[in-house]
Amino acid sequence: MSYEYIQQFLEAKQKRYGEFHPSLVDLYNLKGVTDLARGDAKTAIEYFELAVKNFGPNPELRHSQVLNNLGLAYFIMNKPKLAVKYSEGS
Hints:
single chain, mainly alpha
């Protein structure tokens, strides 16, 4: 799956549901992971935080995955206190 395809798919879902909807959690997480893999931890954090804001009523598994990814992104950005905070929350 290409980076551009992920972006287009996310934009289409946002058009349909708006920026805040539980069905966007996995896409925000995926976008964050791809940004992190591309070396853009700052943008990745923005998408991980959007994912956190979009958790629905049963966030158990997705919640820990996103928080772990958020902790990793903060670790990469050399922000150890935030990295530990989010990693321990997962």
